[in-house]
Amino acid sequence: xxxxxxxxxxxxxxxxxxxxxxxxxxxxxxxxxxxxxxxxxxxxxxxxxxxxxxxxxxxxxxxxxxxxxxxxxxxxxxxxxxxxxxxxxxxxxxxxxxxxxxxxxxxxxxxxxxxxxxxxxxxxxxxxxxxxxxxxxxxxxxxxxxxxxxxxxxxxxxxxxxxxxxxxxxxxxxxxxxxxxxxxxxxxxxxxxxxxxxxxxxxxxxxxxxxxxxxxxxxxxxxxxxxxxxxxxxxxxxxxxxxxxxxxxxxxxxxxxxxxxxxxxxxxxxxxxxxxxxxxxxxxxxxxxxxxxxxxxxxxxxxxxxxxxxxxxxxxxxxxxxxxxxxxxxxxxxxxxxxxxxxxxxxxxxxxxx
Amino acid sequence: xxxxxxxxxxxxxxxxxxxxxxxxxxxxxxxxxxxxxxxxxxxxxxxxxxxxxxxxxxxxxxxxxxxxxxxxxxxxxxxxxxxxxxxxxxxxxxxxxxxxxxxxxxxxxxxxxxxxxxxxxxxxxxxxxxxxxxxxxxxxxxxxxxxxxxxxxxxxxxxxxxxxxxxxxxxxxxxxxxxxxxxxxxxxxxxxxxxxxxxxxxxxxxxxxxxxxxxxxxxxxxxxxxxxxxxxxxxxxxxxxxxxxxxxxxxxxxxxxxxxxxxxxxxxxxxxxxxxxxxxxxxxxxxxxxxxxxxxxxxxxxxxxxxxxxxxxxxxxxxxxxxxxxxxxxxxxxxxxxxxxxxxxxxxxxxxxxxxxxxxxxxxxxxxxxxxxxxxxxxxxxxxxxxxxxxxxxxxxxxxxxxxxxxxxxxxxxxxxxxxxxxxxxxxxxxxxxxxxxxxxxxxxxxxxxxxxxxxxxxxxxxxxxxxxxxxxxxxxxxxxxxxxxxxxxxxxxxxxxxxxxxxxxxxxxxxxxxxxxxxxxxxxxxxxxxxxxxxxxxxxxxxxxxxxxxxxxxxxxxxxxxxxxxxxxxxxxxxxxxxxxxxxxxxxxxxxxxxxxxxxxxxxxxxxxxxxxxxxxxxxxxxxxxxxxxxxxxxxxxxxxxxxxxxxxxxxxxxxxxxxxxxxxxxxxxxxxxxxxxxxxxxxxxxxxxxxxxxxxxxxxxxxxxxxxxxxxxxxxxxxxxxxxxxxxxxxxxxxxxxxxxxxxxxxxxxxxxxxxxxxxxxxxxxxxxxxxxxxxxxxxxxxxxxxxxxxxxxxxxxxxxxxxxxxxxxxxxxxxxxxxxxxxxxxxxxxxxxxxxxxxxx
Lengths: 354, 844
Description:
The complex is a heterodimer.
Chain A: H1 7-22, H2 26-36, H3 42-49, H4 55-91, H5 113-127, E1 131-132, E2 138-140, H6 141-144, E3 164-167, E4 170-171, E5 178-180, H7 186-194, E6 199-208, E7 220-230, H8 235-250, E8 256-260, E9 266-275, E10 294-303, H9 305-310, E11 319-326, H10 327-335, H11 348-351
Parallel strand pairs in A: 1-6
Antiparallel strand pairs in A: 2-5, 3-4, 3-5, 6-7, 7-11, 8-9, 9-10, 10-11
Chain B: E1 2-4, H1 5-11, H2 19-29, E2 33-39, E3 47-57, E4 60-69, E5 76-80, E6 90-95, E7 99-101, E8 107-109, E9 113-115, E10 118-120, E11 122-124, H3 157-160, E12 169-174, H4 188-199, E13 221-223, E14 228-236, H5 246-254, H6 262-274, E15 278-282, E16 291-295, E17 301-303, E18 309-311, E19 317-321, E20 324-328, E21 332-333, E22 346-353, H7 355-365, H8 370-375, H9 383-398, E23 409-411, E24 419-423, H10 425-432, H11 441-450, E25 454-456, E26 463-467, H12 469-472, H13 479-490, H14 511-524, E27 530-531, E28 537-538, H15 540-546, E29 554-556, E30 566-567, H16 572-586, E31 588-604, E32 609-625, H17 637-651, E33 665-668, E34 680-691, E35 697-708, H18 710-715, E36 724-732, H19 733-738, E37 755-764, H20 769-779, E38 784-793, E39 802-811, H21 820-836, E40 840-842
Parallel strand pairs in B: 13-16, 27-31
Antiparallel strand pairs in B: 1-12, 2-12, 3-4, 3-6, 4-5, 6-11, 7-8, 9-10, 14-22, 14-23, 15-22, 16-19, 17-18, 19-20, 20-21, 24-26, 25-26, 28-30, 29-30, 31-32, 32-36, 33-34, 34-35, 35-36, 37-39, 37-40, 38-39
């Protein structure tokens, strides 16, 4: 049809196409549209001029103007699509891209490493049907010692390096004596006061020992006590429980070793050692286990009948086992922390790593 | 406790059992071994030399030039200053290149040297130079007759002396804690008994009976104190003090005991052997009335043999003679009657004292001795006579001339603690988790027998087990105690693991723990705070700075350091204590801790336990000073923290985010008289309550948020000329637990578009934003869907005493699209409302 255009229209079309082809941006195309298509544009001018033509020419002139309009619109549409395609192509370019530029930083918070490990253990024990309990940190002699079978002049008290407390400058008498709990084992007694067997509980919490602080000693650290009382519980169950727990924590089979340990509130009492999970070859020895191949993980044992009886539990019917996991130690093992003082130090340069 | 391998071998044949095997077996069956170290390791490096000749040194009177045959090559020329070196002796030679201990934990290397012009090719050693005590009078002449021992020349000395694993002796260190319940294991013979049971070998016998005695008058012994259940006094004559034999001195050294003289060494040796402390008096220093064991008088003094003057109380027990204290019972002897070099007549004391009394005395005086440590473990009262027999027998071996002039004297009302315990084999298996195949009755019986227990009725279901006195004082009295004996003999390690079977039931919900977790998740998560754990102790200086030094606290009597007595009442002060350091290092601190505090003034329960509070403390601190312009409120730590706390309380579902007209939380400034912490800013603090349906405060106080008191900020070193931008908050978990839950409820998404309009008021500077917002909401007659403050201005453009506040307001209807007419009506009402609160609608 183009060929039938009158020369004047043909010229318009050529001009428009030249501008369209040269356009590299949407605004330029819009300018062409304005000049040719919009009100007051070329096409509108042509159509307005029709009335001035002799009637026999009007039909051709009208047709020609419409053809011009269609051709310009098509060229605009084509070019627009072309430019969009080019823009997408250009956006596909990886030119100058530097993957090593830093990611935009965001403020982030942190969960204390002790919290992280405590939760992990809580979740493991919860999944095995253990209650998670809490107990006071300022304790009474009777819970920390007496009812755990450690009476007043028992030499086992020496192991505890107890912080004794007073109120208003007055120390309290004997079994009402205030102290900072030296272990989470006090909650064993509190648990047995509240719950009827069978029960399974773990108690995470902070404990205190009057010790000089250095890289491996803190006067405040964390433990997790476990207590299971029921019918027919055996040393085998204790071993099975500890192995299951270790498998869950370290996500691999861990060899354990049980050896005699003395704690007045269990009988028999044990120390549980685990094959050091950090040795390159199991048992070979490394820095973490001080070359012994074993890490001392938790004291444990069958609950002493005196402890059960003091809490009114029938020892012919029920037996139980208890364990005291060194949470702080697990945290240090897990994150390779070489100085225990970081845990309670409140330095955000340490904390914000977690 | 240090155990010498050779010493053990005196009691049980250790052939074929290495020190390390022994350590492992003891660890798995008896007590934890903490270390195995060679004793006097230098003996493995020095070699046996035969002194061929000694000539005088041409240029030094005291030096000699020796020729020593060391087995290979030419004899060595060694210059030696010892007066006792002479031809024919076998001696310990450190040849060139040997490392010897330097006495300070290090070593030094023997080099070829010239001494006063004479070449010396090594060193002939004294005992001290080899780590064998303090002897340095001369070189160590080896205990071998040279004629019969030519084959030893050139061998390492340790080998010549009969080494085990290359060393003269080994020291096995046992963890004292794991022996707390075993008074019988505080000596080599006790440990040897365990070893014998483990190895299935017999014990070598020792003397248990005293030799015959003369018929002179015995030393009178009277026991008045209840704390002494047995006191034996044995007079021994014909003594000649001197040096203990080499084997005894070396064994004492291996066990960590410094040799003194024969008599003292024998006394120590017996204690370290059979675990019975004993004491030797020079009998000539005792008075004619003999020995009286009595309680001390209040304020009585005595000088103990360490030369210290001790002031005593009625709780202490004394050994006296002629009215004077001669020993602090069970703890330490007295200076006056102690054994000397010239002692020829002595009184041997072997006694049993009450553990608690000895323990209290030794704790009160801060005087822990080998003796007191053993007595407080509860010693066997049948042991003293056996130990006495052992001591006298050892002494007689070394000094055949001694005699007992008189019968032993004895006092005290002791009873034999040996007892019978019922043991049911089935119960033993049931507790250990073993069946009759793994642990048959016979094996159980054998285990008990080898540990010294007597079994009768072994053909029944209920055995009677005789517990010997040595085990019966404290350790074994229950069936469970014997289950332990059987379990450890079986080795716990060999017990197969079992799964616990139990009923399935949901674990009770612990709301406090759940809340704590949600708090941690929110604050460490989207709020981007760091969780800290701080000590429960509050440092005194910090308390002074915070103005809380006078608050009642529980206090540690024996703090870890002076100034760290206080146990905190609240978590916040600990957090404020962390601010200066963290600000300096990081420029900001966003900290929180979920923790406990203690209020001593409120007690509860049978034992008057102090009240424990659970809270989360938060601190937000940024370096630089806080902006004093009210317009900058949104960028202050105080309001950042307020926003954090609001978000936290919403996420915990103790309040719901506000909707127009009803705030989620009602924040109230505490009144003048209300108690706030001294470190809180009285003019810039606020308390949050949940809001009821009408927007009024309801329920318990949920949170307290405050800027730091400016003086406190300055005291903490946080501010110079200006005020530190530090805010803190506390949220009581106890209150959260008692506050009604306001679970998240879904609100429908609007169906019709809303109209946004900005509203600005000029207001008196004391008018609360919440009052103005209430006006805006009322003016909407239910159409105001959202009100957001976006501008707060005070300055030239508003009149003095006035401020400008501007809000983005969203009008929205549930039933229609709103038009200009609705907007107009709203603005007209707002204008009227502004006037009601003393302000006006700004139209500029």
